[in-house]
Amino acid sequence: MRQPASIPVGISDLYSLNGQRITLSQELGRGGEGSIYAIAEHPQWVAKLYHANKLTPNGLAKLHLSLRYPPQNPAIAAPVDLLLNHRGQVLGFMMPRVPQGYPLHDLYTPRSRRQKLPFFTYTHLHRVARNLSVAVSALHHRGYVIGDVNESNMLVNPSALVFLIDTDSFQIRDRLSGVVYRCGVGKPEFTPPELQGKRFDRCDRTPAQDAFGVAVLIFQLLMEGTHPFDGVYLKSGEPPLIQDRILAGYYPYGQRSVPVRPKPFAPPLTTLHPQLQSLFLRCFETGHQRPEYRPTADEWAVALTQAEQSLISCQRNPRHRYGSHLARCPWCDRTEKLGGRDPFPGPNTIVPPVPKRRSRSKPKPPRRVEPTIYQAPPRRFARPKKPFRRNSRPWQVIIGGTLSLILGYGGYQHWQMEQGRQMKVQEIAQLYGSGQYERCLQAVRQVPLSVRERVQSLGDRCHLGQARQLVRSGQFSGALAELRRVDDPTLAQDTIAHLHQRITSGLLDEAQAFYNQGKPETALAVLDRVPQGTLSPEQRQDLARQWQQGWEANQRRFEAAQAALGEQNPQGAIAQTQELTTDHWQEQGQDLRDRAYGQLVNQALSEDNLSQAEAWLEKIQDSRQRNRLASRLGTLRDRLEYEANRESLQQAWAALYDGDFQLAQERMSQFSGNVSQLDRFGDERPERLRQALSNYRQLQTWLMSDDWQRANTWTRQQLQRFASRRVSCQEVQLLDQLWNEQSSGEQGLRQQLEYKQEQEILGQLNLSLEQQQQLSQMYPRRLVMGQTGADLDYRLANCLGVN
Predict the structure, then answer these.
(1) Which is higher by pLDDT, 773 or 446?
(2) Burial class (CB in 10 A: 0-12, 13-18, 19+), 415
(3) 8 Å CB contact between 137 and 301
(4) Which region, left, alpha or beta, applies to residue 332 given φ > 0 means left and ψ of -120 to 50 means alpha?
(5) pLDDT-derived band of residue 280, with 50, 70 and 90 as boundaries?
(6) Strands, DSSP E only, in 730-775?
(7) What CA–CA distance (Å, rounded) separates 710 from 140?
(8) Quick check: is 487 catalytic?
């Protein structure tokens, strides 16, 4: 067992959070951040130990959050426990052991798929895409964002199950403090257009941006590894890179006209299910500028399930699966187009991969040594000598020609190399002239050392141009780093000084923004990056001192506001929070202000001061507290409204009994809100009041117009209802008052005499003759038959005070 040199203590001195001893066995893998080990006590888990200085405070906080809010999905290799040394220092974490699998790119590349998973069909690819969508959806529902979506962070086993790894780089948000721990990396091929060219450690990722990368992976899975933005560039010049095409929205399968067309050997888009085609169009064309239109992982899972269920088998090759919306098998056509290379070979043509074996060199047989036999030297015969000639020796001609060729070839090689260097210098100059400073710097870094001096000046100018672009985009730290790479300090001193001033201004604004956001340590770190020549040490100290004093003053005001709130002094708490100066402290004080306004609302409610309570409620920004207090305000509003309506109803009845019909109508018009609550008053309810007011005003009209017959008929009805106790005594008194007021004329007296003459007995009540005469003078032609007449006489006697 080998112990990595980057671990500060022995591998055996590791413990979990609950103090359990953890023993590591063999090393399973090693990466740039750490190494993966098997765990002897828990075979179902593995341990990841970080290299020295690789576990930052930000990463440690992210690990704690992952333990607090686990993804709760077996397909996600998330941390399940931390690994500590004997001093309690975190060295790594434990996570579920992922079964043996293959990276996602081994599946959508036809050649590697045939070698490693030869039995996979188009159905399996749909299932892998669906399982990928389900795993990403589980992450999003738990508040995670992958950020770095790419094919290397996803493993697939032979059962088409997808496992997400490298989860410690996922973005997660602390639900208590609201702090977002970002994902600082990403591949341009899977990055949405709104993030192209930006620094990922400064961006809060969203699930809609994950959806772009997931859609790219699904497209490559179902389209034989073809990238959705890859294709044949139709314009002149060098074709743009994939990330540039993503930024420009060059989706060759969409409805917009773009200077790119699909590659001739790429599968046609019609191979996909129509619903999948629609989702890809939404993601890459409609959602290019509006990320909210991109399909979610849940939508992909549903669509992929339906697409998989619609697949049918080819009759020529049962391993060819294609959508039922197609008239013929597209894989047979593709096999013919590729010259016989079948993406999904038939069962008889599949050759399982055989593991390679190291071939052992066969031992050579020993050389046979023949015994030495003496042989006589060959006989030499003298030949006649030729006359000496200076140019007749062939070796001189050969040597001279060879040297000439060597020198000529060397000169040609030197000339050719010099021409290559000159073309490289011209290329760098063209990149600089066209403003492509980043590519210019890449080209400068790639030139050999022998040419580096020639392009050094161009490299400095490219650094300067790159600094200008970064300043314009607000990336002041990056611009300062580019200026520091300029080797020639005399190059464009005015421009460099101007950029230093703009960088200083931008960094100061950035530091002030961090300070306002409640991050004073980050603000001080940004302040330290300000160029030395543009800000003196005294100015740095003064600004840092001002921040420190302002922070302490805000903290004192915040604590004073908390104390005032605890002492039931909401006005004092509000006054203290209104003096907080930065955005961070204003946000912190807003909660205290909401609580203080809540106390003021409760005080106003206890005093039945509805208008004041509503005024305080409008100042509360916390929706939950507003809803809770609004419910109490509604209860008070209903009660006050009920009491006001009840009082108006009583006043209206009193005005009616007094014969003041106009005042009764005015009191009725003062009803507001839910009047149905007054229906429980029985005969005094609002509807009964409206009917009584209408009836007595009609009686008054009849009496004033001498329509005695109608008045008499309605009066008899009212007296009959009075006898059965369905009319109050006050209404009978009002009836009597109206008759007395309107019957004083000659016609009225004559009508009363006629009614009295027609009257026979007053009922069965034992009344004296004087009482009967008094009653007979009150109303014309009363109902006097039977028990009803007796009840009427009895109630009239009591109501009108007849002795």
Answers:
(1) 446
(2) exposed
(3) yes
(4) alpha
(5) very high
(6) none
(7) 80
(8) no
User: Of 216-225, 436-445, 584-593, which one has max mean pLDDT?
Assistant: 216-225
Scanning 658-685, the segments in alpha helix (DSSP H) are 661-669
Phi, psi of 13 (to 5 degrees): -95, 60
pLDDT at 764 over 50: no
Q: Which residues contact 768 (CB under 8 A, 6 or more apart)?
A: none
Please, what is the angle between helix 708-723 and helix 786-800, to 10°?
Answer: 90
**Is residue 35 helix, strand or coil?**
strand
What pLDDT is recorded for position 753?
45
pLDDT of the residue at 371: 47
Q: Rounded to whole angstroms, how far apart are CA atoms 280 and 216?
A: 9
Orientation of helix 437-446 relative to helix 394-433, angle to 10°: 160
Tokens at 52, concatenated: 């020295």
Find where tokens 């790159």 sit: 466
- In this prediction, residue 375 carries a pLDDT of 44
| Residues 337, 110: Cα–Cα separation, whole Å | 15
From CA 396, how far away is CA 399, in angstroms rounded?
5
C-alpha dist (Å) from residue 710 to 114, 311, 701, 733, 738: 105, 88, 10, 19, 14
Asked whether 273 and 286 are in contact (CB, 8 A), the reply is no
pLDDT digits (tens, 9 = 90+) for 172-224: 988 888 889 999 889 999 999 999 989 998 889 999 999 999 999 999 999 99
| pTM exceeds 0.85, yes or no | no
Beta bridge partners of 48: 36, 93
Answer whether 483's CB lies under 8 Å from 467's CB. yes
CA distances from 774 to 728, 750, 762 (A): 21, 17, 11
Give CA–CA dist 165/181, Å, rounded: 18
Cβ-based neighbour number of residue 96 at 10 Å: 17
Both ends of the chain: CA-CA distance in Å?
122
State the Cα–Cα distance between residues 135 and 164, nearest whole angstrom. Answer: 8
Tell me the residue type at 200: F
pLDDT at residue 333, rounded to an integer: 92
CA distance 84 to 14: 5
The residue from 81, 106, 148, 583 that is catalytic is 148
In the β-sheet with 154-156, what is the strand arrangement from edge to edge? 102-103, 154-156, 162-164
* Rounded Cα gap, residues 106 and 554, in angstroms: 57
- 630 membership: H or E segment, kind and range: helix 623-657
What does the pLDDT average to over 158-171? 89
Phi, psi for residue 138 in degrees, rounded to 5: -60, -40
What does the longest C-alpha to C-alpha distance in the chain come to? 197
* Average pLDDT estimate for 90-99: 89
